[in-house]
């Protein structure tokens, strides 16, 4: 794929370059969503990433993988976007896509976990949030993460340690649910165990309306 990117970039072949970008659309959308907490904003950032990649294609010199180059652009676009927000540390409320009755129970369970993860992420500054997602979610090495964020490896490791400490604190604080939350959790787990998708959807909808 990196050779394809080199050829498409060198030839100025917009159609071929666009096909390469499209292969990464879904994973970039997920990545941006984790950083922003909004599917609409994530899609906007992916579009901006694609436009910037095309206009800056001459700067892709194969020093990193094409995928890493796209992630660098996407991450920086998200950080710039967060910096322009009134409260750069706060994620939006639309953490999961709307569930549908036909969705698989395992997918719904992942959505619930993703929402919990996004809720915890809002306690992190944007740079720490990006480091945590790149290192602990995507599994990138410290050096590559540092290159994407244009910081030193030591700074990336320090940010990761602070982010992990904050996430642990938030998790510990949330580990003491109220009686009502315990009841709701038991209902969730019971429905998921029996693969009662409609029940899970109804519980999610009730919680959304009550929020």
UniProtKB/TrEMBL annotation:
InterPro entries: RNA_pol_sigma-70-like, RNA_pol_sigma-70_dom, RNA_pol_sigma70_r2, RNA_pol_sigma70_r4_t2, RNA_pol_sigma_r2, RNA_pol_sigma_r3/r4-like, WH-like_DNA-bd_sf. This is Sigma-70 family RNA polymerase sigma factor. Residues 115-167 form the RNA polymerase sigma factor 70 region 4 type domain. The lineage of its organism: Bacteria, Bacillati, Actinomycetota, Actinomycetes, Pseudonocardiales. GO terms for biological process: DNA-templated transcription initiation. Residues 20-85 form the RNA polymerase sigma-70 region domain. Belongs to the sigma-70 factor family. ECF subfamily. GO terms for molecular function: DNA binding; sigma factor activity. Keywords: Sigma factor, Transcription, Transcription regulation. The keyword Ribonucleoprotein does not apply. It holds the Pfam family Sigma70_r2. PANTHER family: ECF RNA POLYMERASE SIGMA FACTOR SIGG, RNA POLYMERASE ECF-TYPE SIGMA FACTO.
